[in-house]
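Hi support team,

I've been running sequence recovery on a batch of backbones for a student project. Most finish fine, but this one hangs at about 90% for roughly twenty minutes before it completes. I'm not sure whether the input is malformed or the queue is just slow. I've pasted the structure tokens below so you can try to reproduce it. Let me know if you need the job ID as well.

Thanks,
M.K.
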């Protein structure tokens, strides 16, 4: 009993795991979770296995744990109150209407991007990127739009032990190659995913910043490569609307580099 309330140990451990993963900017290993929470290895293995099977947490490509897609599904109503979603929705709907292409909204979580919203057009192509899905941050236009706003020391720490997986033949091969891309993208104010996640899908993306200039998400326009490249309005439209959303999130030009 605690304060007159019965504490169920197994339930509390579930919440403790969720709270721990939420409080860290990068995924955690089973050992790191056990050390932080003081849960015996035998108990922790079964707990994490159950939580993964229930989709409350998930494993990334390095076999580390982070929050799962079930939390987004359960949080659909709560998402209505999420500032990033609320402040972006009008702009991304209008973008989809103006460009007649698919528009994505996503946010970074550790070394991955979590897709928050997808606005389809009447000529959208099929894609595995759906709300709640996660993709490696280095292989997406959305992820690279966030990464080019990160400090170089933060990037070095993030990718110190990351093995780059080739999702397609175009996927960026290593951190050195990624850094070269990010330099170009930062100078132009938008990033590109040239069929790095899915063959046939080409994306242009720009970052969204909050009131203190911290990157909190990104928007992108996606479609067939030729069609996206031939529409010269897309880069400027994406940059412009990412800036409008950033302003709605409280950003001002003072002290922040906005392209």
């Amino acid at each position: 009993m605690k304060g007159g309330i019965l504490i169920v140990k197994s339930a509390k451990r579930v919440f403790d795991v969720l709270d721990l993963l939420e409080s860290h900017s990068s995924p955690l290993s089973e050992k790191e979770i056990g050390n932080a929470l003081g849960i015996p290895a035998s108990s922790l293995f079964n707990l994490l296995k159950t939580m993964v099977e229930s989709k409350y947490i998930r494993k990334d490509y390095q076999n580390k744990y982070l929050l799962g897609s079930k939390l987004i599904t359960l949080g659909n109503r709560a998402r209505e109150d999420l500032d990033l979603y609320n402040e972006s929705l009008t702009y991304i709907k209008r973008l989809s209407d103006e460009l007649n292409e698919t528009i994505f909204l996503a946010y970074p979580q550790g070394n991955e991007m979590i897709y928050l919203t997808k606005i389809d057009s009447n000529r959208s192509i099929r894609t595995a990127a759906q709300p709640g899905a996660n993709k490696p941050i280095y292989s997406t236009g959305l992820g690279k739009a966030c990464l080019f706003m990160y400090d170089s020391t933060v990037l070095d720490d993030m990718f110190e032990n990351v093995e780059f997986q080739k999702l397609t033949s175009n996927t960026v091969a290593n951190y050195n190659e990624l850094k070269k891309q990010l330099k170009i993208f930062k100078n132009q104010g938008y990033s590109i995913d040239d069929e790095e996640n899915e063959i046939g899908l080409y994306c242009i993306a720009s970052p969204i910043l909050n009131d203190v200039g911290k990157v909190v998400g990104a928007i992108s326009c996606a479609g067939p490569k030729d069609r996206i490249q031939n529409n010269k309005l897309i880069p400027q439209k994406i940059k412009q609307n990412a800036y409008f959303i950033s302003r709605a999130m409280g950003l001002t030009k003072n002290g922040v580099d906005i392209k």
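--
Follow-up from support: It reproduced on our side and the slowdown came from queue contention, not your input. The longest helix spans residues 83-99. No action needed from you.
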